[in-house]
Amino acid sequence: MLARLMRIWRLGIKELYSLKADPVLVALIVYTFTIAVYTVASGAKFEVENAAVAVVDEDQTALSRRMRDALLKPFFKEPVLIGASEMDRAIDEGRYVFVVQIPPKFEHDVIAGRDPVIQLDIDATAMSQAGNGASYIQNILLQEVAAAYPSSTGTAPVSVVIHAKFNPNLKSEWFNAVMQVINNVTMLAVILSGAALIREREHGTIEHLLVMPVTPTEIMLAKIWANGLVIVVAATLSLVVVVERLLGVPVAGSVPLFVGAMVIYQFSVTALGILIATVSSSMGQFGLIVMPVIIMMNLLSGSTTPMESMPEGLQYAMQLSPSTHFVALSQAILYRGAGLSIIWPQLLALAGIGLAFFALARLRFRKALQAAQ
Amino acid sequence: MTGAAIALAGVTHRYGRTLALDNVDLVVPPGCMAGLIGPDGVGKSTLLSLAAGVTRLQGGTLAVLDGDMAQAGWRREAGARIAYMPQGLGRNLYPTLSVRENLDFFGRLFGQGGTERAERIAELIAATGLAPFADRPAGKLSGGMKQKLGICAALIHDPDLVILDEPTTGVDPLSRRQFWELMDRLRARRPSMSVIVATAYMEEAERFDWLAAMNAGRVLATGSPDAIRQQAGEETLERAFVALLPEAERAGDGPMPDLPRRPSEGPPAIEATGLTRRFGDFVAVDHVNFRIEKGEIFGFLGSNGCGKSTTMKMLTGLLPASEGEAKLFGAPLAGDDMGTRKRVGYMSQAFSLYAELTVRQNLDLHARLFEIDDVAGRVAEMMARFDLAEVSEARPESLPLGIRQRLQLAASLIHRPEILILDEPTSGVDPVARDGFWRQLITLSRQDGVTIFLSTHFMNEAERCDRISLMHAGRVLAIGTPAELKQARGMDSLEPVFIAVLEEAGMGRDEGAVELADRPTHVGRVRRFDPGRLWAYAWREALELVRDRARLAFALLGPILLLLAFGYGISFDVEDLPYAAFDQDQTVQSRQFLESFEGSRYFDRQAPIGSADELDRRLATGELKLAIEVPPEFGRDLMRERVPEVGVWVDGAMPFRAETTRGYVQGIAQSYLADAQMRTQGVSTSLYPISIEPRYRYNQAFKSVNAMVPSVIMLMLVLIPAITTALGVVKEKESGSISNFQSTPVTRLEFLLGKQLPYVAIAFASFVTLVITAYLVFGVPVKGSMLTLAFGSLVYVCATTGFGLFVSSFVQSQVAAVFATAIIAIIPAVNFSGLLVPVSSLTGAGRYIGLAFPASWYQQVSVGAFTKALGFAELWRDIAVTGLLALVFIGAAMLALRKQGA
């Protein structure tokens, strides 16, 4: 048993040397966990921020100006005044997501109590911003009118106060930063372990190992621990330095618990990478299988759009993906400060899926070797 | 005009710090068969690749066919008159293409028309005996046949200079003999043709007209074989060469040790009974029987592909036998018997140690995996014994073949095995190094009693074995000591015995001795840009693509599958949110208030909450996304118009969902208030003096699918084409067929565009299937101009395949290509191209990354044409920028791709 562990250890060390010898791979890993995380988290925000708005003001009164001025940064870019005739074209070209149209005699009608109608045109192809932005604009405009003409505004019998728990200002930067780290872990782990196996197969080195007192299980475990270690360390550094320090995201829960969970996640995704390598006969096929698998795992795991909005069948199917469970438990740990008592079902699922991938890969290991010859 | 085929003056060439050619002056005479002889790593291959224009000249002058090879213009002219066959069997061939298709490709590269090609191919394959195998894929040919195909490919354009780098290495004696006969016939047809060959076989060198002996980057002697023998005063070329070497390098020279074999007792070391291996219908090894005694050196000889390697793999346990039994040390072989593995050393045919580890690290790894006691001591001992100490910190890839083989032998011996299984250990190793190698083997066998089972193509090595077996087509044809075999046939050397046995077995009978007619050489002007050459590459790439069915299927079906998954799956429609109420009032009023949340498709009610702690806990587990806390006294306060405060808790862990939820809650609260007013006052008046009428344009229902489908098409048409194309160039770099690009007149642009064309076609086909899927499955039609969308997509896939080509051109390995393409493409395509966040609201570096990537521009085209009913007038700018980026990628790929190696 000890001899077995020593062999796994040795083979893993070899794996680390191989990685070190390829500066392109090292540079790409560094890039992924630094620049890529930072630019995505700070640049591509889901919340309504810097949304492009245009106003068609056919009233041109103090009230219409006041309403225009109320569309403030950082939610909106400075509203641009455009003519009614330009409206269609501007929105067609994707220059503005929202166009507010204030009708003629608007203020006059408000005073007269004639309930004038403001038209809000929304580019509904910008899914992430259209709905929330529209409800922002409606609220802002109504508040402005209420503030300008308090007498013509009623009071609500109930006040509904909405609090956002775990992320009071609903900053998507927080969410995106952490999810980006997770997505990159998935991407690197699958490619790194799978491609390394295919390269060894193509260079004949696996075969060479198999005539030595080394079993396929040991080879696979060595690949998993070595590649996993590199990625877990890189991801932890990324979380602590880039996410917590540079992006200023407060991490609610326990980082050690998160790292521990990441180790288990790592096992399941590197095993998946090896499994894909054993079902593909060449690097070309590997690339074509890996690409869809990675984007599916990333985009449908609940890290991008809510899990509940997916069709039920797809939700069940995605339970097979380790990323779904890992995203759920990371949100619980990092935002809600959840402990082991809350996240253990996901950990169990991760370990189970990982073991299944590993067992399948082990079954295919020798067959794949013979088929590739 | 010197009239020389190749003339070098003061040529020096370095790889990093290693000096490969040291101020070489050499004139190779024209119109003859010239040979380059010398040990490994003395610069033979470098010299030949310089002459072929494949490697960049670093210093000195080099004239080939009387033109300066430093000039790109002359290289292109000369490229049409030179044929180059790099080292390694069939390395410049395409394994999935048939014999005829391979030749067709080379014919096209030299601008031959259809009929001319057909005539030449028919003639060449008839002359080489390949005609019956014209439709067999090159990868399934035996070594000898591959080599013949290689020579056909080289000769298809009637070159004036043929450069062959070790063409017969690793080829059996019969195939080798046939090869040289073929060369003689071909030269007889065109006496003006110059041939220069590098070889490690001295007996082959005897038949050349002119020789240059090289050592350590310098030329030792030139002249006819006779002249060289005379100069050295030796009888054979092999001895003459050794005599020419400087004193220091002759170390260990002398007769082989002749030690008697120690008698062995106990069971035989290796015993095979009826050993058989089938691959599908093909029987690779057919009921093979042999017994090898302990301490014996047993040689395995046979034609290429006769089953030698397969037999050896079965003996190591790498391949299970289909039938029969193999015993090691008297016990049947079990695949996972670790004890046996420790007693066996194996060396595979190809180099199979880690190229990225140093010599010392490789030995160290072996020692540790075998759990040797004194690792450092044993590694040092092996390095001293195999003369590796000097290169201990070097990586194997930078070492000459001979040293690499020594390293492999050292690695296979490090654990003191009792049986050594060596698969062509001396293939490609020069005579001096081979002798050294054999001294080691003999010592091992005679002194240490190690059983050695090896395969070889060298007859002088076979003579040194205790016993040999001759194998062909999976069967053992003869077995015995070299003396017995010679005696049985009444021949005095093994080579004719071997050839006779193989010919009796039916090999070589298909040889058609077709007379070759002379034909006028056609020397056309070499064009700067030739669509024919571009087409040659496009046609070849397309064939390879079609042959790999699995890959083609993934490239076409993958995007559809993903469109289905993402079209349904990436949804910003927030529905069925699990929520629960913490009703501390429990009155009619509070229930009325809570009822307004029920029945909404946005919310999904869960069991009520009983305490504040429970509220926190259920939100923390993620079970609830929303909790509503109705305060005590809610009903009473409401009646008294005291405006009670309802607390709503939204899970903020996913900001987008929380934001949307907040909007829903506000909406529901308002409708509740309106209802309440209706109940109490009988009329409903708005709280505000104005109304706001939102109009969701392009997507009235505000369903994600309408917006997602065009964006997902954008995503599919970048990721899949890029990853498919990304291996295009680098695969040729790894396999070695890149030399066809380097040594023929094909230009970088022709090469790249030719490679790109089939992938553009596949990607466009994929676009068509995606549009059909969008319409049929999702009911998302193209509202705008179909033609504009198609045109824009064509431009877009040119850009995305161009991106793949660019990555492929600058990386060195397929691993790096897959890695780099995935990482560089996925991040901007998913985040900065309008899939999730509109490009107009990106900030910081992300915005610029997005704008520099074609996906963000095409997203406008796709969304515009699908949902916004736009046409060319509105979208041409985006298409133009996409096209511009396509040009940038191709341009960058051209810069990254070198026509000449370092």
From TrEMBL, chain A:
Keywords carried by this UniProt record: Cell membrane, Membrane, Transmembrane, Transmembrane helix, Transport
UniProt superkingdom: Bacteria
Presence of keyword Cell membrane: yes
Membrane topology of this protein: Multi-pass membrane protein
Gene3D superfamilies: abc type-2 transporter like domain
PROSITE patterns: ABC_TM2
Location, primary (coarse class): membrane
Residues spanning the membrane: 21-41, 177-198, 219-243, 255-279, 286-304, 342-361
Family, as annotated: Belongs to the ABC-2 integral membrane protein family.
PANTHER family, per the entry: INNER MEMBRANE TRANSPORT PERMEASE YHHJ (PTHR30294:SF47), MEMBRANE COMPONENT OF ABC TRANSPORTER YHHJ-RELATED (PTHR30294)
Protein's name according to its UniProt entry: ABC transporter permease
UniProtKB/TrEMBL annotation, chain B:
Segments traversing the membrane: 552-570, 707-730, 757-778, 784-808, 815-837, 879-897
ABC transporter domain span: 6-241, 270-498
Membrane topology: Multi-pass membrane protein
Localisation per UniProt entry: Membrane
Ranges of residues in domain ABC transmembrane type-2: 670-900
Chief localization: membrane
Entry keyword set: ATP-binding, Membrane, Nucleotide-binding, Transmembrane, Transmembrane helix
Pfam families assigned to the protein according to its UniProt record, in alphabetical order: ABC2_membrane_3, ABC_tran
The organism's place on the tree of life at top rank: Bacteria
Transmembrane helix as UniProt keyword: yes
Ribosomal protein in keyword set: no
Family: Belongs to the ABC transporter superfamily.
Name of this protein: Ribosome-associated ATPase/putative transporter RbbA
Species of origin: Ancylobacter radicis
Top-level taxonomy: Bacteria, Pseudomonadati, Pseudomonadota, Alphaproteobacteria, Hyphomicrobiales
Gene that encodes it: rbbA
